[in-house]
Design goal:
Helix 1 (17-28) packs parallel to helix 6 (158-172), helix 1 packs across helix 10 (345-363) and helix 3 crosses helix 10 (345-363). The chain is 30% helix and 25% strand. It is α/β, with parallel strands linked by helices.
């Protein structure tokens, strides 16, 4: 792609999946792009993400703001279509596989879940509502699951995908710089626009938006346990299994079992609001041992799964926001905020990036 000196120039801050996707989308829309970030893959939260595409609200249950969820449905479908296309190229790390979602009571008896299922069923590939999935996949009766549905869902190998996405940004002509931007963006807008010769700024900094934009965000700590999925010791699992967090049950009760790439399986899920330590292990954090046992009890075949050594546990801080995603222009500025994705950064990434490019056009018209 040839850069046109006359085209508007966009400064993107942040190199997680949201920032990189935004940069690539902006280049495809013929903007010049400079991306500045303090950290890049593999040293970012996006690499740790569960990265299973889901219809909102996701299984972790922390995207509940009605306005944000309504907008997220469009973002989701934009991403779904993009990921389906990307799965054709093995280099992307994107796979499309069956994902099964389980429920503790019949979906038809839960108005919220029924409405979600009806919306979802018309939009995805391979949808099937069938309680028989519980028995088909050997889910334990002790799980409490009584109903289930499945569909074809993108599942992203984040190690491969984030590297591929960064390479796409470079190949598209984005200028990639490592650096730190500190302090309120509004107060330094003029300096940043001048320094980077930019016409607009896009804030994709996740939890960094607390400092840069004064956001009332909070860390939502999560962790995944990586186990071998190469067919040695147990049958290879190629289907995702998930049961949403239920706040009426108490304690950590979410189940998240997702194949990653060709030979790995990630097990979750942990939802710990406000916690910031990330040096967790099966030895020093009992909830992780409980999480592993919960997945094994849910799907007994996992009792034979071998941990992926030397570091089977990956911990990250989801950038959560009480009112869901903030995707808007800061009034009276040339700043677009694209933050607050919680545990849905991958699922929302392409849809949010597309909307960002539309907002940029209002700030830096050609």
């Amino acid at each position: 792609m040839q850069q046109r000196n006359a085209s508007p120039h966009v400064l993107v801050i942040g190199a997680g999946v949201v920032g990189l996707t935004t940069a690539v989308a902006a280049r495809r829309a013929a903007y010049r792009v400079t991306l500045v970030a303090e950290s890049f893959a593999p040293h970012i939260t996006s690499v740790i993400a569960g990265a299973l595409w889901e219809w909102p609200p996701a299984v972790c249950g922390h995207h509940r703001d009605e306005d944000s969820v309504v907008r997220a449905k469009d973002w989701c479908m934009d991403s779904y279509r993009n990921f389906i296309d990307l799965a054709a190229d093995p280099a992307t790390g994107v796979h499309v596989r069956e994902a099964v979602f389980y429920f503790r009571k019949p979906v038809d008896e839960d108005p919220e879940q029924l409405a979600k299922m009806q919306e979802l069923s018309a939009r995805v590939l391979g949808f099937r509502h069938d309680a028989g999935l519980i028995y088909q996949y050997g889910v334990s009766p002790r799980s409490g699951a009584v109903d289930a549905y499945c569909y074809q869902a993108p599942m992203i190998d984040t190690d491969a995908y984030l590297g591929w996405l960064l390479n796409q940004a470079r190949r598209a002509g984005c200028v990639i710089l490592q650096g730190s931007i500190e302090g309120p963006l509004v107060e330094q807008q003029g300096q940043l626009l001048s320094t980077y010769r930019a016409d607009a700024i896009v804030n994709c900094t996740g939890l960094g938006a607390v400092e840069l934009a004064g956001e009332s965000m909070y860390p939502l700590r999560g962790a995944l346990i990586h186990v071998r999925n190469d067919g040695v010791g147990m049958p290879r699992i190629t289907t995702a299994h998930a049961m949403a967090f239920d706040d009426t049950v108490g304690g950590q009760n979410m189940v998240f079992i997702v194949p990653r790439g060709e030979d790995r399986l990630v097990l979750g899920g942990l939802v710990e609001p406000g916690e910031t330590a990330t040096d967790l292990s099966l030895e020093n954090h009992p909830p992780l041992r409980d999480m592993l046992e919960r997945c094994q009890q849910f799907l007994p075949v996992l009792e034979k799964a071998a941990l992926l050594e030397p570091k089977p546990v990956r911990t990250g801080l989801r950038p959560a926001r009480a009112r869901g995603v903030r995707l808007e222009v800061e009034p009276g500025t040339r700043i677009v905020h694209n933050v607050g994705h919680g545990g849905s950064g991958v699922t929302f990434s392409w849809g949010c990036a597309t909307e960002v490019t539309r907002l940029i056009s209002t700030l830096a018209p050609r």
